[in-house]
Amino acid sequence: MSETILSIQGLTKVYSGGTKALDGVDLEIRKGEIFALLGPNGAGKTTLIGAVCGLVRPTSGTMHAFGHDLANDWRQARARIGLVPQELATDMFETVWRAVSYSRGLFGHAADKARIEEILRSLSLWEKKDSQIRELSGGMKRRILIAKALSHDPELLFLDEPTAGVDVELRKGMWEQIAALRERGTTIILTTHYIEEAELMADRVGVIRKGRILMVDDKATLMEKLGSTEALIQLSEPLAEMPASLAAFPVELREGGLELCYRGGSGEGGGRSEVAELTKALIREGIDYTGIDIHDSSLEDIFVGLVAEGEAA
C-alpha cells in the first residue's frame, strides 16, 4: 500500500452562526494518487480544503501532512502543498510572468526562470507571459491559478473545481495537465461538479454530504460494489403475466406488458452476461422482442444514489 501523506482525524468546523460545515471527517490520502472528492453544493468540500491549506481554522480534530502536525508545525508541511482555488484571487494588473514568479517566492524558493517558463509553456501561457491578467480570457485566468499553484513544485496539490466555467476543449486540456502532474509524482485532490472528470482520472473517490464523508473507496471497487446494469427489452406482443421460467431474473413487466425491465448484476457491466441469459430464456419461451437498450451504472449514477441515501438517512 502507498505511503499516507495526509491524515485527517475527527475534523469538525462549526461557524459562529452554528452552521456545521465539517462533521467529524476522517480521511487519508496516499502518495501519488488522484483522489476525487464529490459532493453537492454546501457539502463541505471547500471548507475541508481550506482547513488543510490554512485558510480555515477547524473547531476540532487533527491533521497531519508529510508527518507534520498542521496545527503546530504547519510551516514546513504547507510549503509542500499547493492550492488552485475556485475563485480567481490575483492582481488583475500584474503580468502573467510576475504573478507566477511572485507565488514561487512566497514559499521561499529561489527565482528559477527556467522552471517558470516550463510551467507557463505546459499550460499554453508562454505567449501571454507579458500580458496583464485582466486582458486574458476566463479560461486563461484559470490556467494562471494552476501555474501559481505549481510555481513552488508542491508534492500535494488541491484542485477546487479547476475546470468550472471553461469550455469542453479547454477542460480536456486541463485533464491532460492533471494526468501529467501525476506522472511527475504529484498527489492530487480534486473536487469537481463534472463527475466524468472523476470517472476518467481518479484512483479513489470520496463522497461528502453535509460535512460528513459518506464513502471512500477505490473507483474500480466502488463501481464493482455499487454498479449495476439496466436493460429495457421491447416485446413484440404484450405479456399478461411474467412466465415462471423468468422468476429467477430481477425483471418486471412495464408499459402494459410490452416492456421487460431488468435491473441487476454487479460491477461495471457485470449484469450483461445475465441479460444474455435472459434473452436466451425469452427465446426458449417463444417470446419475441424487437429491441434491447442496455445501460451500465456510471459513477454519476452511483454518486446520485449515495447522496439520495444520505438525504433519507
Write the topology of this structure:
Blueprint: E1 4-14, E2 20-30, E3 34-38, H1 45-52, E4 60-65, E5 68-69, H2 74-78, E6 81-84, H3 96-106, H4 113-122, H5 138-150, E7 156-160, H6 168-183, E8 187-191, H7 195-201, E9 204-209, E10 212-218, H8 219-226, E11 229-235, E12 251-254, E13 259-264, H9 272-284, E14 289-296, H10 299-312
Parallel strand pairs: 3-8, 3-9, 6-7, 7-8
Antiparallel strand pairs: 1-2, 1-4, 4-5, 9-10, 11-13, 11-14, 12-13
Keywords, separated by commas or semicolons:
313 residues, alpha/beta
Q: Biggest β-sheet: count, sense, barrel?
A: 6 strands, mixed
What does the average pLDDT come to? Answer: 83
Question: How does the helix and strand content classify structurally?
Answer: alpha/beta
**Helix and strand element order:** EEEHEEHEHHHEHEHEEHEEEHEH
Compute the number of strand runs: 14
Percent in helix? 25-40%
Count of discrete alpha- or pi-helical segments spanning 4 or more residues: 10
Radius of gyration: 24 Å
Strand order of the largest sheet: 6-7-8-3-9-10
**Beta fraction of the residues?**
25-35%
